[in-house]
Predict the structure of LARGE xylosyl- and glucuronyltransferase 1 isoform X5.
Amino acid sequence: MLGICRGRRKFLAASLTVLCIPAITWLYLFAGSFEDGKPVSLSPLESQPHSPRYAAAGQRERESLEVRVREVEEENRALRRQLSLAQGRGPAHRHGNHSKSYSVEEGTGDSENLRAGIVAGNSSECGQQPVVEKCETIHVAIVCAGYNASRDVVTLVKSVLFHRRNPLHFHLIADSIAEQILATLFQTWMVPAVRVDFYNADELKSEVSWIPNKHYSGIYGLMKLVLTKTLPANLERVIVLDTDITFATDIAELWAVFHKFKGQQVLGLVENQSDWYLGNLWKNHRPWPALGRGYNTGVILLLLDKLRKMKWEQMWRLTAERELMGMLSTSLADQDIFNAVIKQNPFLVYQLPCFWNVQLSDHTRSEQCYRDVSDLKLQKQLSELDEDDLCYEFRRERFTVHRTHLYFLHYEYEPVSDNTDVTLVAQLSMDRLQMLEAICKHWEGPISLALYLSDAEAQQFLRYAQGSEVLMSRHNVAYHIVYKEGQFYPVNLLRNVAMKHVGTPYMFLSDIDFLPMYGLYEYLRKSVIQLDLANTKKAMIVPAFETLRYRLSFPKSKAELLSMLDMGTLFTFRYHVWTKGHAPTNFAKWRTATTPYRVEWEADFEPYVVVRRDCPEYDRRFVGFGWNKVAHIMELDAQEYEFIVLPNAYMIHMPHAPSFDITKFRSNKQYRICLKTLKEEFQQDMSRRYGFAALKYLTAENNS
């Protein structure tokens, strides 16, 4: 305790010295600027007395003061450097094959001070605390070679940045390809408090090329063994990561585990979750020696200073040479050698909890690492899928969890008190953003939208919305951002997100490229009462039409719409390409109808409907193009909803370029095969849920 107090007194004295020197300097200069009680000007621009003797004296005084100023500034800088060294450790120096460094620190305030904190070993300007301080630099080492690994590194770095709060220093052992890619990336990626150093992997090959390795990672898979020699000599600790790692929490929590190391523990590793090192995967399976199940080296905590003192280089080399006499080559690259060393020296390891390196490959016990039941359930569902199935990616999509940001913009709305309120529900991606203003002009009621965007697109949308008087004037539009993940457009997930957050008793299930007729909101509220939707299972159909013209004089009444229909300006929706989708609406009857009329379900029917908020969700197995609405309408019919066509309601589809998903559907035979398979599976599920009544869906499909 006494030592701590003395250290604090020294720190306080040094701090006061640094703070006081500028003040003392200023007082000295201020006092020195007076001669015989009169001020002496230091500026050559100000007038001076004409006496040569006075001028010479003034010149000598100025020169003396300038010299003194420079001396004091030098003392000040020296004391600042000493104080910085007292708080941390000396700055990292270039050595060995350490080639280039990049610092991405714009917008971080005092960049010079922050840079000093980042360069210093494992310290920072915040001082040392038992836990990770918010400005303590966390060091991460990654071996990366080639194009594919570079893409993986970007995903890894994004996951770390998403959760981190501390400055980061990435040490990348990279080949020329990876360095070119990643150096440009980090130079153009304006991320604050991130430093990147590159180490030439090609110069390290000679260190490990003598080790035969069967692993697909090749020679680069062995380079983690030489990090004690490769990384700066004053770097004390580092987290080492494989490129296929994704972080789900703040990396500072892992960095804090270093404080738990005791005695001679210098390696932090997670136990291997497969049976590889148990030697029972197949007959005559002979793995390298390991302690129990062995350890996985996808995530490693290295205490570099202690490893160097233990002569780690000599330790692993002797072990590898001895084992290679019998094993001939490594099967799992550096992991085999790490485990062989640990087998002989188990005291070196601090075993990390398995959730720090959940291994999702085949034949692992990764489910034991999940503390959250929902995570365990998700992994169980994925494990039941056959990865060799040609439709695996389609099936997997329904289990994908998408990061979702509800109410991205301000939302404020209270449903009307008569329990007739209706919310328009739709989903969209960035290429349909231009429809928002038009829809807001056509529909004055509440709207619930799910937008499928990347992080960058979300910011573009924010700027677009904030720059729109129409959108900013509407507080009853809820924007829910579902962030992009996977290769398919999760259309039904988006619809479900928008539906789930409807605050009114009824929903109008629409699509973003449709404009509802003017006054439809009030008309639907009256129809809700007329058809007693509160007490009956009805789906009110809004007939759908389309135009092929980008400029359309929107019809203000049913009579005007019928005239445009007769003139060929409008058509019934998808009349030319998919008649079955809306044919059951019976447009011939609608032309003259003055009261609502009932229609029966038919195969491939997909109208736009108004339903109660408690209607079933859309089936998530249908992604991209095809059957996403058809399946929902089929489910409504199975639950005995009545389909009622509204005689004075309509909506018009506006033209746009074909979506990426419909292009894939038309051009990719496997896409169509998988969609057909999913349809059949959905129909079988319907039969199991609804019994004999659902047989009609199979019959109708076969006859269509």
Observations:
- The first helix runs from residue 2 to 32.
